[in-house]
Write a structure and sequence with these properties.
By secondary structure, this protein is mainly beta. It has one domain (9-235). It contains two helices and 18 strands. It has helices at 9-19, 229-235; strands at 32-38, 41-47, 51-52, 58-66, 69-78, 82-91, 97-106, 110-111, 114-125, 133-136, 144-148, 151-156, 162-165, 171-179, 186-187, 191-192, 195-204, 209-220. A hairpin with a 2-residue loop joins strand 1 and strand 2. Helix 1 runs antiparallel to helix 2.
Length: 241
């Protein structure tokens, strides 16, 4: 499994951040927190090795192997707060598996009102080359669940949801789905304490790969409009597998 050779989220944001207004810079990369459960087997880890991407933005690029599957990730984050993600997951078993992933970003506290927005898209790949691949919601859970201080504020790809591939080695585009974008138009909490997260819940067919890319933005009101341009950069992402 590999990342697409098209321009990355990080490269797109570097040119944006240099030329636009930004919020206060963070002196050190925030410690990203990860949780991944595959078939009930839970793994947790952190990543403090973000690389400055200009202005307040930090880029992360790594992978993680776990029992039953693997994850590759590119993240672009701002503790003030924006969480952009480009994620690839492979089911390395011979049976369908339920994946539950949580990406958590410590953020600057704020009181005074917020506007939020999120979007997600992706692609499903018949990595096993058996002529079939499927990704679906699990029970009543949405595939995308955006939380602030562990409280859900936005969901996308709501249940029931399913995408299929029905040709050998084929690929199916998924989405996009969005809420509160463009313009971070959805009301968020009045107070943000210290954490925003993106949770992904999905069932993936044996031996196959799914990609998800998207963004969750929490806009402290008022906030510089330049930060909203990141939505356009994420929306233009396209992947070749």
């Amino acid at each position: 499994m590999k990342f697409n050779s098209s321009p990355t989220i990080v490269a797109g944001l570097v040119s944006f951040a240099v030329g636009g207004a930004v919020l206060a810079d963070s002196a050190t990369a925030p410690e990203m927190r990860f949780s991944m459960s595959i078939g009930g087997n839970l793994c947790t880890w952190t990543d403090s090795w973000g690389v400055s991407a200009g202005g307040p933005y930090w880029a992360y690029n790594d992978s993680y192997e776990a029992p039953g599957g693997s994850m590759m990730y590119q993240l672009l984050v701002d503790p003030d707060p924006i969480l952009g993600f480009d994620l690839g997951f492979t089911n390395t078993t011979e049976t369908d598996q339920d994946f539950h992933i949580v990406l958590s970003l410590p953020v600057a506290p704020f009181s005074g009102g917020t506007k939020i927005g999120g979007m997600i898209s992706g692609s499903l790949v018949d990595e096993s080359e058996d002529g079939f691949a499927a990704v679906s919601s699990v029970g009543t859970l949405p595939i995308f669940d955006a939380t602030i201080d562990d409280v859900t504020w936005l969901t996308l790809f709501d249940s029931p949801f399913q995408a299929l591939v029905t040709e050998v080695g084929g690929t199916t585009e998924i989405g996009p789905d969005a809420d509160g974008l463009p313009g971070t138009s959805k009301d968020g909490p009045f107070v943000v304490q210290d954490l925003i997260s993106v949770e992904l819940n999905f069932r993936l067919s044996a031996g196959d790969t799914v990609w998800f890319n998207g963004i969750f933005i929490v806009e402290y009101v008022p906030a510089p409009p330049a930060a909203l341009l990141l939505v356009g950069l994420i929306a233009k992402r396209r992947r070749r597998n």
